[in-house]
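This section describes the prediction task in plain terms. A model, or a person checking by hand, is given the sequence of a single protein chain and must write out its three-dimensional structure as a string of tokens. No templates, partner chains or ligands are provided. The sample shown here is typical of the held-out split.
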Amino acid sequence: MTNIKGQLILFISLALVICGCGKPSPGFKIYRNSDMVLIFLALQDTSGIVDATIDNDNNELQLDIDTGQEVVNHIMSLKRKLFVSLIKPDETLEIKERVRINGYGIVHLTVSSPIPNRGSMSVNWTGIKKPGIPQQAGLFSNSGAFRVDDRILAYCRIPEHEESSWKISKFGVTVEVTDTTTFENLEIDTEGNPVLEILTGDEEIGSQKLSFVLKELQPHETVEVENKQKLGDDVFLVNLKVVPKNNQNLNDDILSDR
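The expected answer:
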């Protein structure tokens, strides 16, 4: 019996070590698509990222976080030892900007390499979400966007889950009807910024309208949706390609998936 217990403890310990190696710290979400990288850090509205630097030699992101009471330093490793590497040895990172949305501080980075990556490789790493992050609207906007050349990576905080279906019961038989309608629309907000609106009937997040402000989109441009996906359980990402408006879509803001 003692040997069995010992083997069980050893197995659990090894499993924890293997699962933990190289993964992001709790509260982080990391997403890469080609040469664009987003890092999400769970923050209360009273906290903010006041400085960010990158150590390309060690693939580390160093963050100074103002909690409202003190400034603390946090070092985040961008290495992963198992299965796949987020950053290759010949690649270097450059920080473009720091932004805030409700619940998260976000760092936008670009990747450069002697051999450009023309593919559409993406890697999702999701850490455990820290408790206490507000779900409701706070001091900040609920979405943001990162543009590099003719591509935009837009993201938003998913609102609290809403029911995505309704049920009819007749003669003892229950029929469940789920809304799976999905469309994309480009509107203009009160400040003159283009806003991408997506209505989705995703069974996990319910039928909701998600909005993404695209401040860097010019009046003569529109966008095509390349793909959409969730990052963790509360962030929604949309990869967009910027294209010039033509005579057909000058008065037509409806977007279509490629």
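For orientation: The chain has a mean pLDDT of 74.
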